[in-house]
Amino acid sequence: MPQFIKDLIDAISAPIPYTVLTTALLAGVIIFRKWVSKPSVFVAFSVVGVLGFIGAFPDPNFKQIITKPDNIPIVILIATVVFFTWLFLRRAVINDERIKKGQPSLEGEMAKKKVFTWPDLVYSELICMLLFMAALMVWSLLIQAPIEEPASMARTPNPSKAPWYFLGLQELLVYFDPWIAGVLLPSFIIVGLCAIPYLDTNPKGNGYYTFEERPFAVSFFMVGFILLWVSLVIMGTFLRGPNWSFFGPFEYWDHNKLEPMVSINLSEYFWIKALGQHLPQNPLIREAPGFAFMGFWFLMLPPIMGKWVFKKLALDMGAIRYAVFAHLFLWTALVPLKMVMRWTIDLKYIIGIPEWFLNV
Amino acid sequence: MDKLLAYIARTQIWKSIIRHGYPDTPRNRTLAVLSNVLLHLHPVKVRRSGIKLSYTWCMGGLTFFLFLIETITGLLLMFYYRPTAELAYQDIFALREHVPIGVMREVHRWAAHLMVISVWLHMYRVFLTGSYKPPREFNWNVGVILLVLTLLLSFTGYLLPWDQLAIWAITVGTNMARATPFIGHEGPGAALLQFGGLQFVHAGDDVRFGLLAGRFVGEGALLRFYVLHCLGFPLIAATLMAVHFWRVRKDGGISGPL
Ligand code: HEM
After folding, report:
1. Domains of chain B, CATH where assigned
2. Least confident of A107-121, A315-329, B89-103, B112-126
3. Quick one: closest CA in A to B216, which residue?
4. Helix (H/G/I), strand (E/B), else coil: A359
């Protein structure tokens, strides 16, 4: 693979272009789903992807990060998420067209027929299990499970990374303090997932693939799962090196690479830059702009959105459901908002009271 | 050969175990499913749509299969592993050095990674088919807890090799607990819980300390994670899986258009 392509890929995998591009990609895939869902298009893109992967493989830095035994699952994760998202779009596009013509969905067509569990289901289960077991054995024979130096509290490896499935949350530590990235957000994810069946009052799209009958639900879930979870896991695994600095996939993990960090709090923007004063002594007054912002975000925005963008949704859901939904939605939205503010205006804290460990 | 098989099928021993003929008639196919405790998880007949790979992606079944593999390989690993700070690393290392073509540790680790992926994809497909909608709301919630348990199982297992990778990953992961509001010693609000200058929540008694049985990842944490990994979480997960499968059937089988 020529050097200029490597440089280009390194450059666009930096956090800002990476996020912008993955977002644009997901939006594009959803908008142009009719075209994307054609098997020929999918095959063409897959071939390009696989060839690119093979072409990149000889690069020592790329190879090292990709073939680290514990990173192989992420490669599988990327491939399966891409494939199944495509499969969903394909089935959804076909079903949406059929529904428009008044025909039953693919699933509806097939559900008319019932078959015996033995042999139809039992045999396909057996075959799946055997194939899978075989693949797992081959993988296990080829690649040894890692074991590093004995544990020692005296030597901290750099970077120190959590297990891969938590690296999305670790990546968020760049933008939030631990009590948000490590405690609040995971809790909200669990609560939010549990709440989904009770918040989604749309009776359509139960038991078959469709996009047009539930566009918001599907898009919102995809943003959460693909952009805010899977893609951050990828970022945290492949693109973060020593000191949690950013490294492109073809870049050498240089321990001396330091990224200059400018950190400005909202309070400093308000009191020093805007009003030209000193920071007030009392933290509550000092952080008043942050509290005002948070109040606006979580208390004012829900009713405003309910009268405006989410008008129909709020009516369908009723007050309590809508209130819960709006808060979960705004927490989700706060994550990319904070990321953008970090990149554009070097914002560190919206509310920053380190004395009380209360930093937002 | 045929005669022998026919004879075996007529013996009292065989008949006491399998109470139906070869499953090639509707009656025997029904009996085959009904009289076997494992197959009995399934209904006798299923909708064609529900068993298509392109519908379920087979991800729920795969997750369950991986859980079974983990149980079996994990059991074998337990024979060789002693959860103490002196021995744990040595035992894991010995597995590699002294067991010719030993793959149990590999199978256990790679299947664990795959189980995390397959459970995410299972959730993704259940969402995309809208299968959490009534009457399956409750089963979705059982699923969310199973998802959390899968991650916890993997996380507790990550510590057991007791190498640098393990303790630092768990250190990074559990450091978050320090910042839990009110009950972590660096969490917002914890400083408020004091009486006459006496701090109630400090590094020696906060939620992280409870998790690790110490101020850092040490022997106490190893034992705690071991017990949870080998006994606690698998028991809870297995119980909830039973509930999960039961509910799939009670909610009308794999979802389909109404
Ligand atoms: C250890 C984890 C889990 C196991 C072993 C498991 C297993 C299964 C199996 C075998 C099925 C039958 C259909 C299929 O294969 O897709 C199923 C269905 C279902 N699962 Fe899970 N599951 C797990 C986790 C989850 C999670 C994380 C969720 C959601 C958050 C979930 C929600 C559901 C629902 C709602 C159904 C019914 C789907 C339908 O009827 O179409 N499960 N599960």
Report:
1. 1-45 (no CATH), 46-250 (1.20.810.10)
2. A107-121
3. A153
4. strand
